[in-house]
Amino acid sequence: MPDEIIRCDWANANLLTQQYHDHKWGIPVHNERELFKMLILEGQQAGLSWSTILKKMDTLCAAFDDFDPRILAGYGDAKVEQLLQDPGIIRNRLKINAAIQNAKAYFKLCEHHGSLDAFIWAYVDGKPIINEWSEMKQIPARTGLSDTISQDLQKYGFKFVGSTIAYAFMQSVGLVNDHLLSCHFRR
Asked: What are φ and ψ of residue 176, in 5° steps?
């Protein structure tokens, strides 16, 4: 019998969360489209479980043109109404409008920083913060840094980027590594 793989507790909910945890969560991302996509998805997740987003991932990507900011920025009222009828996504008008607004804000941010990658990784000098948590209850929902990132994103016009969302984004794209010390995937 092979040794059991030890994961962070939250990852054991189902196969989708295991796969996400094992292959994406906490791994540094520098791909511009992936960073933007994850920022939007973390906003879509507000008030819901991440498992819900993972289950709807394919339909979310299809409905939102794979989160291409050039396409999203051009969405109008007709597209919003179409999205509100799509049962495969999070049908929340505020979140849909936020995705469109965030695409517009993305270009404003890029004018000043060159890219979302340059902007976001500058907060950690290009190196992930490696935390040393032994229990899930030690992991914060937000930090002083996520407060700052949230405020700075909001200055560019981003919506659904509160501090808790900003921290979840930091975890998802590897700015911070919150894998437990006991986790096989701590890297």
From this structure: -130, 140
Q: Is 20 a catalytic residue?
A: yes
Domain count, the chain: 1
Q: Is 32 a catalytic residue?
A: no
Report the chain's C-alpha Rg in angstroms.
17
pLDDT per residue as tens digits for the range 17-63:
999 999 999 999 999 999 999 999 999 999 999 999 999 999 999 99
- Collapsing DSSP states into helix, strand and coil, what is residue 176? strand
Dihedral angle at the C-alpha atoms of 81, 83, 87, 89, nearest 10 degrees? -150
Out of 20, 106, 121, 167, the active site residue is 20
Residue 36's domain is classified under what CATH number? Answer: 1.10.340.30
